[in-house]
TrEMBL record:
The keyword Zinc does not apply. PANTHER family: EPOXIDE HYDROLASE (PTHR21661:SF35), EPOXIDE HYDROLASE 1-RELATED (PTHR21661). Belongs to the peptidase S33 family. It comes from Tenebrio molitor. GO terms for biological process: epoxide metabolic process. The keyword Hydrolase applies. This is Uncharacterized protein. Gene3D superfamilies: alpha/beta hydrolase (3.40.50.1820). SUPFAM superfamilies: alpha/beta-Hydrolases. GO terms for molecular function: epoxide hydrolase activity. Keywords: Hydrolase.
Length: 161
């Protein structure tokens, strides 16, 4: 598997050394790409807590990105699946939309009991937003925009997947 090491000089700092053996992972990404991505998300796999910020100063950013961008992947790859599910339940639709309001308004509020929603919006404004999608049944077409945008971008690259 992965055999990465951290060389730490006496004054601190660190250098990440790793093996690049494509035989281990026959997938299209290299071991190096896999290990770098994996360790950005979870640095304790290769370095102690005290050196994480020196080896991976952007790990908090990338961890948060992974945590909060799942919706984008879902909407870009399975827009009709998520759309049908959200069109079937007004409470599910409200939860999905309001969670986005919580995260995008102020990420520090997401752990508050009400997500800090009333610090920025009225309940009427939030319900109006949800009701636009519910009454018109347009959440599926809304999330489909992610898929159409990603597909156009991928096609413009001219790379066959």
């Amino acid at each position: 598997m992965y055999s990465g090491k951290i060389a730490v000089p006496p004054g601190g700092g660190g250098i990440h050394k790793q093996v690049n053996d494509k035989k281990l992972y026959p997938a299209k990404i290299s071991v190096r790409e896999f290990c770098v991505a994996d360790n950005i998300i979870y640095p304790p796999l290769i370095v102690s807590k005290e050196y994480e910020n020196k080896v991976y100063p952007l790990s908090t950013f990338f961890s948060n990105l992974m945590l909060e961008m799942g919706y984008m992947h879902l909407q870009a790859t399975k827009p009709d699946t998520v759309g049908v599910g959200l069109n079937d339940s007004p409470v599910g639709l409200a939860a999905y939309i309001l969670e986005k309001f919580i995260t995008w308004t102020n990420s520090e509020w997401k752990n508050l009991e009400d997500g800090g929603l009333t610090k920025k919006f009225t309940y009427t404004d939030l319900l109006d937003n949800v009701m636009i999608y519910w009454v018109t049944g347009s959440i599926t077409t809304s999330v489909r925009l992610y898929s159409e945008t990603v597909n156009k971008a991928q096609m413009a690259l001219g790379v066959d997947g």
